[in-house]
Amino acid sequence: MTALSQFHAAHLRGEFLITAEVMPPKGGDPQRMLAEAKTLLGRVHAVNVTDSSRAMARMSPLAAAILIKNLGLEPVMQLACRDRNRIALQGDLLGAAALGIPNILALTGDPISAGDCPESRAVFDLESTRLLRLAQALNQGRDLQGKPLPDGPTQLFVGAAIDPQSPSRSGLERRFQRKLAAGAAFFQSQLISDFARLQEFMERWGYASGKPILAGIFLLKSAKNALYINNNVPGVQIPAALIDRLSRAGDPLEEGIQIAAEQVQKAKTLCQGVHLMAVRVEHLIPKILDYAGIPPLSSPMSPANTYCR
Questions:
Q1: Looking at residue 74, which CATH number applies to its domain?
Q2: Inter-residue contact 104 to 156 (CB < 8 Å)
């Protein structure tokens, strides 16, 4: 059986795409993750399941994606090259296809030094662009050695990450064009704090690509949270005006929700969707969408038509 991506179908219908992100647990109990994810039913087209982000070991993204799918949400399984060689990467892609998880975000992966397992050995047999090429080969019915797949091609809908705020515009263009050439079908951006940079990226390269670009919107919970991001997340600089606004607010979290909603509205004028990140408070994402004037989906995912034979 081959999975069909309703996320892809929503793009083809020209809908403003909305994705959110959940983090698998560090242990074996997924209940908190599932409780947060359940609040997103009918509000997002797909839910990203992270792959041991920041090099911190968590539940397999494939297992977590299946659990998310069983809720009636369509997952986007993130797949990082850091921890797998090309044999394992192909195995996970084929496993995802078999289990009805067609949406993949191909990532190189954060460095081991960013995490809490410094004794681990990084693999990096491939990086994100070559992982995209591997997925494209599977969609053409070939394995990593160029041999035909015995049961025909997959129908994976594979995307990539992009950072429109990169200080090197030539480097940004080069990486973007390489990922396009390697078969990226959609792009989700890093946290956007400079919408002028996003507009420049869209006008230079984004619109011409014909691929959906989803702007990363992060829920800032407080001024302290914003300062932490400025000090610890490379390439992101939360403007001082937003930090001042959060510090002056009587309810910083409520102010952060309002800021995120305003950013969703800005993104809607510039690109084809948003990718919402509200770490450990994913249940607040519907409130952000309400404030932004984004109604519930007219055609939420139906588990009954996830597969075709």
A1: 3.20.20.220
A2: yes
